[in-house]
Amino acid sequence: MLIRGNRNVYCTFVLLLCACTALAQETESPAVLTDPNLDANDNAYMDRQAEALLHEVDATLTRVPPQIPEPNERKLALYLLDAVLHDVHAPNRAPVQSFYPTRLKRLADELEQRTPDEGAIIWKLYNHGFIIRTASVTLGFDLHRGVQRFRVVEPAAEGRRYVDSPGFPMPDDVMNRIASECDVLFISHRHADHADPSFAQAFIDRGKPVVAPEEVFKDEPIHAEITHLERVAHEMQQLPIKDGAEELNLVVYPGQQYQDNGIPNNVVLVFTPEGMSFAHNGDQINDPYPEYQEDYKWIDRVHEHHKVDVVMSNCWMNDHMRFTRGFDPQLVLLGHQNELGHQIWDRVPYWGDSEYLHLTLPQLLDSEYPVLVMTWGESYHYVP
């Protein structure tokens, strides 16, 4: 039995404890669920699964680098990566946000250390971004830090919304290291998964040319700093680089994404001082096809005018075979897989999904043309 004095102290203690508990409950932030359609336990499982699978992906791709023909072990690792990245909320999963910048940091390290004695080293970045280095020049194509928001489709709401993913893009220091190692940046068209204003600004700040169609960054201050070359089929042009110490020969083909009043899309063919040539097709697509033929007037004849070593093609082009035969390259590099800004059916996987997307990619893979598939941060040494 409590005496009155002790009882008062006890009651006061209980009241203070309850008040502190209530205050903690009021000020404690609720847990942020990566996928709001899952509870905390399910979200935690998805994170653990992504971490386990990405660990195996990274180990396998490190052990089995890009090569032709593609070993089955490597193909399985890329398909496993598809599975992780087709989680709607993958860009906001902590294991994905660790996997991506880690591989891009390795790329930056390689860029600072490797220059080929012959041929070219080709690196794959995010989406359709590539870097090509020869003994004399380093070329960047559609370089991008990574998705900053992604689409989520909600049938009940009869529409789609965007979710921010600020933790996904590569760190600024990695971007700046990459820009410092390149001599020029080519941007194919204005879409945000190809035209990254921060990457472009990093080049301009270093006095390096950024070449793009007129539409790119049209309403931004940076637009005045962009180099706009003529879009003329087969016609050779010159571009000074390295403060005028070198000059690149190149052709800017008048491509487009979609039809009629489609978005201007530069398809550049760049010749290096060593005599090699590299083409990047951005989001070139003739759609609907075969009804729409306009661009094939020049696509079909590229090989008649120029020798092409490597073509960097987007994986969802509607007629891969016709485009490839038009350029007739020594090597095809496929890009644009797993653009995480898209909704999941439109994040084209490494396994292709070609039947659903009505693509001729399987025919290209079975053709006489060597085809190479890389993912974020990987490199390949091309020797003509």
Which class of secondary structure composition applies to the elements? alpha/beta
Strand order of the largest sheet: 8-9-10-11-12-13-14
* Sheet with the most strands, sense and barrel status: 7 strands, mixed
Shape: globular
Order of helices and strands: HHHHEEEEEHEHEEEEEHHEHEHHEE
CATH C-level: Alpha Beta
Helix fraction?
A: 25-40%
Number of helices, where a helix is a run of at least 4 consecutive DSSP H or I residues: 11
Low-confidence stretches: 1-5, 9-17, 22-29
Radius of gyration: 25 Å
Strand content: 15-25%
- Separation of the first and last Cα atoms: 95 Å
CATH third-tier fold name: Metallo-beta-lactamase, Chain A
Q: How many beta strands in the DSSP annotation?
A: 15
* CATH A-level architecture: 4-Layer Sandwich
The mean pLDDT is 91
Task: Give your account of this protein's structure.
The protein has 384 residues and is an alpha/beta fold. The protein is built from eleven helices and 15 strands. The chain has a single domain (38-382), classed as Metallo-beta-lactamase, Chain A (4-Layer Sandwich). 33% of the residues lie in helices and 20% in strands. It has a seven-stranded mixed sheet with strand order 8-9-10-11-12-13-14, covered by helices on one side. Strands 7-6-3-2-1-15 form a six-stranded mixed sheet. Helix 2 runs antiparallel to helix 3 (72-85). The chain is globular and about 60 Å long.
List the helices and strands and how they pair.
Layout: H1 4-27, H2 40-63, H3 72-85, H4 94-113, E1 120-124, E2 130-133, E3 138-141, E4 149-154, E5 159-164, H5 172-181, E6 184-186, H6 197-205, E7 210-211, E8 237-241, E9 246-257, E10 263-271, E11 277-280, H7 296-299, H8 302-305, E12 310-314, H9 320-327, E13 331-335, H10 354-357, H11 361-365, E14 371-373, E15 379-382
Parallel strand pairs: 3-6, 6-7, 11-12, 12-13, 13-14
Antiparallel strand pairs: 1-2, 1-15, 2-3, 4-5, 8-9, 9-10, 10-11
Helix pairs in contact: 2-3, 2-4, 4-5
